């Protein structure tokens, strides 16, 4: 199912203003530049530390029984009835941002859910060869620690984390581990090669991502895998074998090109929610369209 979601058939003034603000600011670094690469290498080799601001503001705790970089975000009222396993985005290079933590706290509060978020190893120091076994092992430990039945678990992720969710599903299938009952993806990175020619027609509307720069990060992340391998570019796998999937995407996002490509396939288990003129991972921003998307998520998880 493909749903075009908008507010009174137009973009909110907040979303319009936000795009104007971020367009001239290089929020996303080009890691092809030597100085950026060197810093990214150091960052990827440095143990992750939760930002102090996030610790103070949100109901978040380290899950030391799993590892030092897995965190649980609980509802502020501590009433828990659901579990979300969340894989954050960042091109497989960057750590979660404060926008991630703010959105995850909102998801926890509005859905009475514990949100488990592992901060997985990052490129350029680490690649898919390291990340995929880590995520599989982390998922298994999470299921065992909380005694979660797969039927009560929602798998969720954004951007690279959305792609990683689909990689995890393939790993679970290979090991005959039960799949989560539902999968929700925000602006997923489906093909790390960025080879879809339709991306070029979107590039001028995308204030955040660059086709070539992002493809470079994907190539480094791929490690020993070919960039068209389904385990790193899940658009090349069979989605019909997966549980129900909801995909949220904005048309001012170069990654929308592959979401649109996927929507042309006969996948009855995949629902597409397309938000006109929305940017990459718009659900993390303080705009009405994000509220609309998260309300749909709440209904989806409930059912």
UniProtKB/TrEMBL annotation:
This is Alpha/beta hydrolase. InterPro entries: AB_hydrolase_3 (IPR013094), AB_hydrolase_fold (IPR029058), GDXG_lipolytic_enzyme (IPR050300). It comes from Leuconostoc pseudomesenteroides. One of its GO terms (molecular function) is hydrolase activity. Keywords: Hydrolase. Residues 85-283 form the Alpha/beta hydrolase fold-3 domain. It comes from the Bacteria.
């Amino acid at each position: 199912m493909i749903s075009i979601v908008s507010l009174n058939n137009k973009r909110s003034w907040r979303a319009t203003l936000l795009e104007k603000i971020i367009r001239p600011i290089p929020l996303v670094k080009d890691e092809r530049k030597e100085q950026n690469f060197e810093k990214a290498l150091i960052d990827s080799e440095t143990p992750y530390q939760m930002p102090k601001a996030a610790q103070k503001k949100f109901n978040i705790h380290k899950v030391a029984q799993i590892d030092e970089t897995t965190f649980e975000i609980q509802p502020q009222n501590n009433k828990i009835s659901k579990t979300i396993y969340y894989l954050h985005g960042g091109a497989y290079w960057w750590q979660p941002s404060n926008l991630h933590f703010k959105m995850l706290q909102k998801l926890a509060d509005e859905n009475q859910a514990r949100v488990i978020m592992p901060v997985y190893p990052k490129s350029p120091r680490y690649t898919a060869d390291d990340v995929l076994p880590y995520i599989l092992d982390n998922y298994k430990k999470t299921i065992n620690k909380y005694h979660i039945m797969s039927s009560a678990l929602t798998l969720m992720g954004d951007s690279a984390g959305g792609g990683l969710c689909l990689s995890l599903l393939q790993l679970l299938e290979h090991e005959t581990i039960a799949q989560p009952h539902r999968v929700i993806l925000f602006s997923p990175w489906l093909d790390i090669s960025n080879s879809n020619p339709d991306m070029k027609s979107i590039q001028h509307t995308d204030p955040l991502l660059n086709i070539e720069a992002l493809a470079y990060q994907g190539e480094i992340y791929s490690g020993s895998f070919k960039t068209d391998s389904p385990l790193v570019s899940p658009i090349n796998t069979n989605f019909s074998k997966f549980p129900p999937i909801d995909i949220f995407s904005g048309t001012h996002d170069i990654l929308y090109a592959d979401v649109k490509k996927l929507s042309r396939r006969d996948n009855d288990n995949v629902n597409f929610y397309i938000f006109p003129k929305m940017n990459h991972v718009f659900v993390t921003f303080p705009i009405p369209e994000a509220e609309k998307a998260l309300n749909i998520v709440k209904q989806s998880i409930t059912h």
